[in-house]
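User: Hey, my collaborator sent me this sequence without any context and asked if I could get a structure. I don't really work with proteins. Can you help?
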Amino acid sequence: MKVTVDFEECLKDSPRFRAALEEVEGDVTELELKLDKLVKLCIAMIDTGKAFCTANKQFMNGIRDLAQYSCKDPLVETNLMKFSDTLQEMINYHNILFDQIQRSIKTQLQTFVKEDIRKFKDAKKQFEKVSEEKENALVKNAQVQRNKQHEVEEATNILTATRKCFRHIALDYVLQINVLQSKRRAEILKSMLSFMYAHLAFFHQGYDLFSELEPYMKELGAQLDQLAVDAAKEKRDMEQKHSTIQQKAALQDYSSDDAKLEYNVDAANGIVMEGYLFKRASNAFKTWNRRWFSIQNNQLVYQKKFKDNPTVVVEDLRLCTVKHCEDIERRFCFEVVSPTKSCMLQADSEKLRQAWIKAVQTSIATAYREKGDESEKQEKKSSPSTGSLESGSETKEKLLKGESALQRVQCIAGNAACCDCGLADPRWASINLGITLCIECSGIHRSLGVHFSKVRSLTLDSWEPELLKLMCELGNDVINRIYEAKLEKVGVKKPQSGSQRQEKEAYIRAKYVERKFVEKQAASVPLPEPGTKVLPPSEEEKRHSGPEKSLLAREQGAASQKAVAVSSDEARRESLFCPDELDSLFSYFDTSSKLRSIRSSDSGIQPSTDDSREHLASTISANSLYEPEGDKQESPVFCDYKQPSPGLQLYQAAFEKNLPHMAEALAHGAEVNWVNMEENKATPLIQAVRGGSLVTCEFLLQNGANVNIRDMKGRGPLHHATVLGHTGQVCLFLKRGANQHATDEDGKDPLSIAVEAANADIVTLLRLARMNEEMRESEGLYGQPGDEIYQDIFRDFSQMASNNPEKLNRFQQSDSQKS
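Assistant: No problem. I've predicted the 3D structure and written it out in structure-token form, which is a compact way to encode the shape of the chain:
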């Protein structure tokens, strides 16, 4: 509503002027209220619109997620992505609209209210003030008496000045009123026009966008009509197939699921065979769980659920054997045995069991063939050198690689050909025997069990430095002199590389398991190895004969060996969870009485006291090694009238660091954990520690020595190695699962002994091992080797002990020092 205030009336200050001002002031107040309300509504509309855009954007993102989920269906994915892009454009148009509304309504009207109306209010305040002053001046002027000339003049002057100021401010106030009345129309209509143009642009953009999308939507509608027809047809086909299979199932007997068992070694997906089997858990309860097993990529794996990562039962099928199990109550069981563990499985029927066993055996043969061809190709490309042993300056990684192991081991006498059949360039080795083998003989060795032979690849496996030195200390020539000493006498012909597998298998079993070709101790007086220290008669008698009662003590010692042998299985289980105690693992899994009888017969324990006396009365030296006739040399050898037992031979040779004599003692039936009752119940492993040889300790451990057997003083090999300051041996025993918490008769464990001796290296190793053990227990990682840093540190110590032992000789002690 337009209100005009006349400037002339302003000067008169008439009642008409005062009425016009009152009307204008009320109008402006109401205008301000309306504009404030409109601005608030605009802000609420913008906030609501933005919330709508946010929800719309979330809905659009949901469409895109659905499109990505439907990536296997191009039709659904393409259309959903197209629609989501269109909705995104609409969201952008909405945002533009709200920005324009904010500029046109909120910003412009708020500016008009804050600036123009505020100026009107300020002018009103000044006008009201000067009006009041004018009224006061008029009243004062009227009240002055005429006889007071001075007050008359003063009142007249004040009234004149006040009127002059009133006219000036009143004219400004009327000007501000008229400008406001004129401007408010333009501001309001301008903002609303901008608001309407924003909507016009928004709907034009939306119309153009959907006009472009319309043909696409029509095409999709036609496709959906065809999809509905196709879906109806597929439904009829599936119903027909369902009916057919139901009829077939009613006619066929599904009492056994093995009607159509098939396995394909050359399957395109690498899976030879798969199916459900029951697996016996390795926990104390021996529970059976049904799992989905498969043979793939030369591995036996199983899954609980399809999405789970497969659990590997056998890492390499070449390293395992499979056999029936008839000595347990459950039916259809078979066992897969690897060097580190045994897995008991159960099929649903006899046919299924036979099929699985055949599949595993076939896969083993295939794995041998494939890996053999692969390694030959790699070695042809590598062209290895035939020079001498690699120097100690080579890097740790190179020493642990298979090719380096192959070069070093094949340099030993006789190792260039297979120990059992003579095939050239063998690529496999038996680490506890110290011989090289061809791929076929290595498979036969593996079937003997790890208590007879532990097989490794010279090209595919990693080799610890102490194990490499062990291989270099023995060799095919040395072992064949022992295990083939009577080969010509018994008239057995050694198989050749082209012989049948059955012939090789029978020969190898006779050679290593039955030991038919090992020369009996009383048959000859063998010569010691070159460099072997032979004790003079007085010292030998002093050490082994003893006083008169020594004969009775030895008889008691021989009788106690039976108890040691019987309890050896339980004692050796203390280190079951050590990764390299493969012999202990085998004895843990194989509980048959046949194995125990074999181990007892091969342990070197005589069945009766009379037999023990016969051995004590023999006159053959303990340091013996079978050699060919042409290699025999004349040298003074002390021959006692009492022949030491094989266990005592092993005991002596362990101290003398003579690996060939130790191998000979084991071939004669020495128990690797033999106890010397005359020397504080010390074992060959403890003697090896006293001798100071890391390789001798490794040889005994590889042949099943228990790292935790203690002597009469309660000290095990780890105690003795700590007392003597043999850092390399401490590292080796910790890796093999030695119990560092065991205390001797003085209540000291190895760590306290090392701390008292101020041996920084051994203290470091023991504390690292203890910390790693605590970490594994806290994290529930029982039976696992530990973190990579721990393994790297121990690997470095092993490298140093084998290649640079002088760096670890913190304590210079004589070999004769007693622990």
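In plain terms: Residues 71 and 77 are 6 Å apart (CA to CA). You can pass these tokens on to your collaborator as they are.
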